[in-house]
Design brief:
Order of helices and strands of chain A: HHHHHHHHHH
Number of strands of chain B: 10
Oligomer: heterodimer
Strand content of chain A: under 5%
CATH architecture of the largest domain in chain A: Orthogonal Bundle
Helix content of chain A: over 70%
Largest interface: A-B, 19 and 27 residues
Order of helices and strands of chain B: EEEHEEHEHHHEHEHEEHH
Shape of chain A: flat
Distance between the termini of chain B: 42 Å
Largest sheet of chain A: none
Bound molecules: adenosine-5'-triphosphate, magnesium ion
Strand order of the largest sheet of chain B: 6-7-8-3-9-10
CATH class of the largest domain in chain A: Mainly Alpha
CATH topology of the largest domain in chain A: MetI-like fold
Chain lengths: ~250, ~250
């Protein structure tokens, strides 16, 4: 079904090529020299989009775990710290957070005597990881808490201590519930990475913007940009589905 | 006098302001079988769960083999290691095979080798009459089989006391007897048992003493003969009438 819709949409757009002067697909027509150069320019953004997303996702997975653990504590203070972090980070829109990290954070660091400049690459990664960590933290917490209390109690009655209960009983079960939503969350990171274009990061969206400026063909170029993200996201969601199926098989 | 296996003296417990257990006194001799019954919400589960410390009582004393359950000391852990528990919902570990469910305790708590642990596991799987299910996963077993695995898992820790909290309530009727049979055999081997159940046939056969709980109190405590034929309190009589009707 999805494949059909994509094909239909493409046909509709491409059919405009010949019939109307309003269309300007020549800008990305691979049969011309100019089209090929433009296409290559656009597609070369994939590398950085993927790199940004992967590094940010990995950082967010670690950060999220660190944030989730106090949320599982039976001490109120720790749980409170977890709530404050999650609610606070979740409330900040990505773009302001990006501006703050890229333009503001170096000033803060400088005032503390740390002189670092943050380049667009790391500025974007830090922001993406930070913003996403609130969500991964919630995924971990929900996954671990979803394991029924009876499991913990059964482990306790055969004499396992808390660490052993986590290690042998809770985590192996929780991981099956954590991995699919975590992989799903990766799709959001990929989409959010488009914001990195505004601080000059050369990724898919930035490339499209720059080409629009020189070619004045926003419709065709942004359509192509959307298709680029679509392909990327479809590949990831296929991978997630494969992962989910594997987990289900494992559970028997 | 012989050292009691389990002793509760003036035990009280509240959930917030709700008084669940009211001055519970109960002494269980080694090898004694106690069957606990009573209406829903009367505190049966809570009492049993306090005995193995899944819940904490707030006043009074609980002793296992003379060791008071107080603080987190090594002797408390030793005392608790003598107690096995079987839950209404089985609570098997779904990600582990039957054999691995049984081996986990011996391996990680008792520090046995894999070979020893497997030997123990197979021995108790034989005891509950399902040696052929060793490599299946809990989700592939019937309810009755799962509950028997759960019993075997407890037995692998070689406890001297077994607690059962409505072990057959989640089972289809045709599977109840296979679980009760295993429990009857266990009783015959001298295990100290506290069983919360409404299976009165089992109670008549196995119980040394019947306990009737209502609203957080032990209302009646008698051998099965007088308990069933001549209940002392009106509450107990009404309860028995209700469950023995069908
Ligand atoms: N964790 C808890 N927090 C608050 N109240 C609880 C908790 N556990 C049990 N209760 C309440 O304590 C009372 C006694 O519960 P308990 O489970 O011991 O009863 P029970 O006799 O085992 O009943 P049933 O036959 O339904 O299993 C009930 O009213 C129950 O709602
Ligand atoms: Mg109960």
């Amino acid at each position: 079904m999805k494949r059909f819709l994509v094909a239909a949409g493409l046909l509709l757009l491409l059919s405009g090529c010949s019939s109307s002067t309003a269309w300007g697909w020549y800008v990305i027509d691979p049969s011309t020299e100019r089209g090929r150069i433009n296409l290559q320019f656009l597609i070369s953004g994939f590398g950085n989009t993927i790199l940004l997303s992967v590094i940010a996702a990995v950082m967010s997975m670690f950060l999220g775990l660190i944030v989730a653990l106090p949320g599982l504590s039976d001490q109120r203070g720790w749980r409170w710290a977890n709530r404050v972090y999650v609610e606070f980070i979740r409330a900040i829109p990505l773009l302001p957070m990006l501006f703050w990290v890229f333009y503001g954070l170096p000033v803060v660091l400088k005032s503390m005597g740390i002189k670092v400049s943050i380049d667009p690459f790391w500025g974007a990664i830090i922001t993406l990881a930070l913003a996403d960590s609130a969500f991964t933290a919630e995924i971990y917490r929900a996954g671990i808490q979803s394991i029924a209390r009876g499991q913990r109690e059964a482990a306790q009655t055969i004499g396992l201590n808390r660490a052993q209960t986590m290690r042998y009983v809770i985590l192996p079960q929780a991981i099956r519930r954590i991995l699919p939503p975590l992989a799903n969350q990766f799709i959001y990171i990929v989409k959010m990475s488009a914001f990195a274009s505004v601080i000059g990061m050369q990724e898919l969206t930035r490339r499209a913007n720059e080409l629009v400026v020189t070619e004045y063909r926003p419709l065709e170029i942004y359509t192509f940009l959307i298709l680029e993200y679509l392909v990327l996201v479809l590949v990831i969601s296929q991978a997630v589905r494969w992962l989910e199926n594997r987990m289900r098989v494992d559970e028997r | 006098m012989q050292q009691a296996a389990i002793e509760l003296v003036g035990v009280n417990k509240w959930f917030d302001s709700f008084h669940v257990l009211k001055d519970i006194d109960l002494t269980v001799a080694p090898g004694e079988k106690i069957v606990v019954c009573g209406p829903s919400g009367s505190g049966k589960s809570t009492m049993v769960r306090c005995i193995n410390r899944l819940e904490r009582h707030q006043s009074g004393t609980i002793r296992i083999d003379g060791i008071e359950l107080e603080g987190e000391g090594r002797n408390v852990r030793t005392a608790l290691a003598e107690i096995g528990m079987v839950f209404q919902q089985f609570n098997l570990f779904p990600h582990l095979s039957v054999l691995e469910n049984l081996m986990l305790g011996p391996l990680k708590v008792r520090g046995k080798s894999r070979a020893e642990a497997e030997q123990i596991a197979r021995r108790y799987l034989d005891r509950v009459h399902i040696p052929e299910q060793a490599d299946k996963y809990p989700g592939q077993l019937s309810g009755g089989q799962q509950q028997r695995v759960a019993i075997a898992r407890s037995l692998c820790m070689e406890p001297r006391i077994m607690l059962f909290d409505e072990p057959t309530s989640a089972l289809d009727p045709e599977m109840i007897s296979e679980v009760l049979d295993v429990m009857v055999e266990l009783a015959a081997e001298g295990m100290t048992m506290i069983v919360v159940t409404h299976e009165m046939g089992f109670a008549r056969k196995v119980a040394d003493r019947m306990i009737f709980m209502d609203r957080g109190e032990i209302v009646e405590s008698n051998p099965p003969g007088p308990f069933f034929s001549a209940p002392e309190s009106e509450r107990c009589r009404a309860f028995l009438d209700r469950i023995l009707q069908h």
